[in-house]
Amino acid sequence: MKTQRPVDTDVTPTPAERHHPGLKLALELGPLLVFFFANLRGPWLAATFPVLTELGGPLFIATGLFMAATVISLLVSKIVLGHLPVMPFVSGIVVVVFGSLSIWLQNDTFIKMKPTIVNTLFGAVLLGGLVFGKSLLGHVFNAAFQLDADGWRKLTLRWGIFFLFLAVLNEGVWRGAAVWYAPDAQAADDFWVAFKVWGTMPITILFTMAQMPLILRHSVDPASGKP
After folding, report:
1. What is the C-alpha to C-alpha distance for residues 25 and 170, in angstroms, rounded to an integer?
2. Would the pTM of this model clear 0.85, i.e. be above it?
3. For 25-62, what is each residue's pLDDT tens digit?
4. Range 166-172 contact pairs with CB under 8 angstroms and sequence separation of 24 or more
5. Domain range annotation of the chain
6. Pick from 109, 106, 78, 107: nearest CA to 92
7. Backbone phi and psi for residue 141, each to the nearest 5 degrees, phi listed first
8. HEC profile for 113-145?
9. What are the tens digits of pLDDT across the range 104-134?
10. What is the rounded CA–CA span in Å between residue 25 and residue 70?
């Protein structure tokens, strides 16, 4: 029987990533935590640093700090880890663009739709790649493992659908919160920001853990191409 070759992801971890496995996670979660706590403590930040009031209310202050934290995390990733991971880099661009529009126009719709845009983009790219016979998941996640071709196809399909699910979920949460908490816009903002951290992240972690059986079944030795 002919051995099925793994799909080459061209995403071998750098030495820095191998020596600092927790740094990558910290760089990805750090800006999100800054966003959450800045929104939570927005009034205190505005009173302590009056210049921040130029950005607007608590959500706009949080957005400005989120943008700054995102740029810093990307710079640290480039300097310390030696490269810019695809997903945080693309997400960072959308954060800066939509965050700037939110602050400039004083319209929080832009920053609230950022997760929708990013997740739809990644879902479309992954599923679109499958249509053309390409499994792009390894490039998106900078995967540190190798799977056979069937494994990459299955995992890419699952993540593509999951990204689209997250896009729909984000729209439902922020729009639903706006209706549920009306006319208290701040309460709606607080609920949406909290859900991004304490809702979306646990859901993503659980989904990731649920993929481990598939990854173990389809893992191969990068050198030999054998299970």
Report:
1. 22
2. no
3. 788 889 999 999 999 998 999 999 999 999 999 999 99
4. 166/115, 166/119, 166/200, 166/203, 166/204, 167/115, 167/116, 167/117, 167/119, 167/120, 167/123, 169/200, 169/203, 170/112, 170/113, 170/115, 170/116, 170/119, 170/200, 171/113, 171/116
5. 15-218
6. 78
7. -100, 0
8. HHHHHHHHHHHHHHHHHHHCCCCCHHHHHCCCC
9. 999 999 999 999 999 999 999 999 999 988 8
10. 13
Rounded to whole angstroms, the Cα distance separating 166 from 171 reads 9
Amino acid at site 176: G
Give tens-digit pLDDT for 148-175: 888 889 999 999 999 999 999 999 999 9
Cα torsion 157, 161, 163, 164: sign: positive
Q: Which two tokens stand for residue 62?
A: 């949080």
> What's the CA gap between 125 and 104, in Å, rounded?
30
